[in-house]
Structure of Solute carrier family 22 member 2:
Amino acid sequence: MSTVDDILEHIGEFHLFQKQTFFLLALLSGAFTPIYVGIVFLGFTPDHHCWSPGAAKLSQRCGWSQAEELNYTVPGLGPSDEASFLSQCMRYEVDWNQSTLDCVDPLSSLAADRNQLPLGPCEHGWVYNTPGSSIVTEFNLVCAHSWMLDLFQSVVNVGFFIGAMMIGYLADRFGRKFCLLVTILINAISGALMAISPNYAWMLVFRFLQGLVSKAGWLIGYILITEFVGLGYRRMVGICYQIAFTVGLLILAGVAYVIPNWRWLQFAVTLPNFCFLLYFWCIPESPRWLISQNKIVKAMKIIKHIAKKNGKSVPVSLQNLTPDEDAGKKLKPSILDLVRTPQIRKHTLILMYNWFTSSVLYQGLIMHMGLAGDNIYLDFFYSALVEFPAAFIIILTIDRVGRRYPWAVSNMVAGAACLASVFIPDDLQWLKITIACLGRMGITMAYEMVCLVNAELYPTYIRNLGVLVCSSMCDIGGIITPFLVYRLTDIWMEFPLVVFAVVGLVAGALVLLLPETKGKALPETIEDAENMQRPRKKERKENLPPSQASRPSAKLKRKGIIAAGADFALSEARDGASLSPPPKPTQTNLTYP
């Protein structure tokens, strides 16, 4: 009886068919970018001040320049944060139509010190200093309504969380291809409807729907490509699939620069999803999933199609397919298994915190850059470029240095960069950008490393559950990050960076408490996982004299170690074959951008 991996060794593990399929799915990965971090452009908040009809008429009558109008009619202009709030959210309660006001310092006739004049909130809206538009300028999400921008981004992360939880069941129940096409269709429709939303409430509904299906579709794309390639290529396609997301960041910056209107920008980034519906004719169902559903004939038909595309043929001796694992022999995982024993409990808590930290710092740094940067487009572009060397460094280090130290250092670099940025003066903008890029590279590496190590620390039968539960903290972090960034910057612009520095440095220190997984076999049982920080029994036996090595462990006899069966999706990690945990036919391992 042969498996799909056996057949791929003969018909091509990464030949023409896999390369074409990877290219198509990489487009899907890049198109996910606007939904994940598009708030930087969709929710851009320009400088603004209260609009007073009478003041505008007086300015026109007196022939003031824009600077003179602001100086005479807007309170609290100055460098301090308090002055910024006054100038953007408050107005003088003055009747600008009274005839006693002259054109040279009109308020001097009402009070010797303009600070003594009464102030009130904006009543007639705001004037925004921008040639384009965003959801902020259209729906006036500023001042007392600024929290609504936070909610806009949090809602999409709630969708990510729910969609990621559902996708494992749906992809296993209905198939990878069907779920992929459904998520693409809903994403395209909800994205287009969001672009024509008549009000904020409807925009929020469509934003949630996009979050519900977009990340799920991204994950299914990852599942498909890792199930189409052979064992030795899964780590490579995992890294490249996530690099495609980085390419999407660069393209998004350019598109947003060309299209400064948020509605047209939303249309532009949604349009590719309608094109992805053509994948119905381009991408077949995963033969691994078909085998897991005992649809052997359909699976073999697709395998023969792959072989033909690759210019190969399927040997007759390998045409007797069998599922990669016997589901009947599997142990049933429980969430309690993640905290039942001391070492696994420690691993679970540290991994959950690191998933949370990676999400908060990654999204938070991007959002903070959108608030503090001089040129939002260039800053976004430059910071995205550093994700390429981050991926390259990971490839160089994980099999040479190991996982733990590069992971810890990347978290600490991100935290230290955030802390250093606080003390850099604004006139050294080039240094601020350099340090910010260094922090972005660090947290990108940390994000990639947690994907890998999460799968390597759990025994086989709870590995998928462990990845799912721990990585859910990524979306929890995404839910609170907008409130963390936008509310703390109201207090002090650099306040979020102080918080990021603390959580990043703590994450790096906690990583050092985890065992090194480089060169170690994946744990098969609970006891294997508990013993990861000391030499494995099998490895110690190899160094013992033959008489001692052949004696079975009494402890193992008493406990009756149960072999949980090979995990289809993650067994390749024994050889370091996957950067992000690939999926398996019956459960889904999740990876995040």
Q: What stands out?
A: The longest helix spans residues 460-491.
